[in-house]
Backbone:
């Protein structure tokens, strides 16, 4: 499961999924379901910032010698009459801006290179950079622009490989983090309708059901998944959390205990033990 998906998960569920996804590190759980800069203000959708405005502001923050370097590479992009030259220049710009800690600008140029390369791998990589930045953006206008950039790149990647469910799920995360949750849910439902054995998509939908108080739906979904994945600790754990929220503490504890049987990390088991004690 990708890190972006964890933003949709409640605190207890994130305890297990974060540890499972990223190793033995006690997570600092972000209980907010969406980005702090979700592109809505007062019920009004925020217009995306123009890249020219973003670039101008970034240029004002960098040293003069770096600005000269950037302007020189930009000239190479305009003069480059061969696609490979343009790709190289865009990648140089991306690397330069990355070294200056200007992540959105760096991602933009990497995205431009990816569009010229038109490979599924490069398009997806650039899109995922925007998705990562989007989750931490403080300015709603920047978040909206990043969401648009990510969607464009993911769409291009999907066009190259319409059967790649992972890319579709990433696009769903963009939509959920940019004020279009139902559109994201729609994509996830399409994925599980076509591939019901996609555990990550099933888990994400179950997590959303838990967050929205639809515990019966989460339980029904995960009970079905458990039939074909009886030894998947994440599935068992999230199902336990659904039962806990539903008020069936006894069944929840039983499942939490069961989930530990399929965990190899002893420290992770201790985390689950602590959680069980907290709800007894």
Residues:
């Amino acid at each position: 499961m990708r890190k972006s998906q964890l933003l949709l998960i409640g605190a207890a569920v994130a305890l297990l999924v974060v540890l499972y996804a990223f190793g033995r590190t006690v997570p600092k759980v972000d209980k907010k379901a969406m980005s702090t800069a979700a592109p809505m203000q007062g019920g009004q959708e925020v217009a995306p910032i123009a890249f020219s405005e973003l670039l101008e502001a970034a240029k004002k923050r960098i040293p003069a010698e770096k600005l000269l370097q950037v302007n020189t590479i930009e000239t190479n992009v305009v003069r480059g009459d061969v696609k490979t030259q343009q790709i190289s220049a865009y990648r140089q710009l991306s690397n330069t801006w990355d070294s200056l800690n200007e992540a959105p600008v760096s991602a933009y140029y990497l995205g431009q290179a990816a569009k010229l390369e038109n490979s599924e791998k490069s398009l997806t990589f650039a899109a995922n950079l925007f998705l990562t930045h989007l989750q931490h953006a403080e300015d709603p206008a920047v978040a909206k622009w990043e969401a648009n950039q990510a969607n464009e790149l993911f769409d291009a990647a999907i066009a190259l490989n319409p059967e790649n469910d992972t890319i579709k799920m990433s696009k769903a995360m963009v939509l959920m983090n940019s004020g279009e949750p139902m559109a994201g849910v729609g994509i996830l439902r399409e994925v599980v309708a076509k591939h019901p054995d996609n555990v990550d998509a099933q888990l994400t939908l179950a997590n959303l059901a838990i967050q929205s108080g639809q515990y019966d739906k989460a339980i029904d979904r995960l009970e079905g998944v458990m039939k074909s994945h009886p030894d998947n600790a994440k599935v068992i754990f999230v199902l336990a959390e659904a039962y806990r929220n539903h008020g069936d503490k006894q069944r929840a504890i039983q499942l939490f205990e069961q989930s530990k049987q399929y965990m190899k990390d002893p420290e992770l088991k201790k985390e689950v033990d602590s959680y069980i004690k907290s709800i007894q």
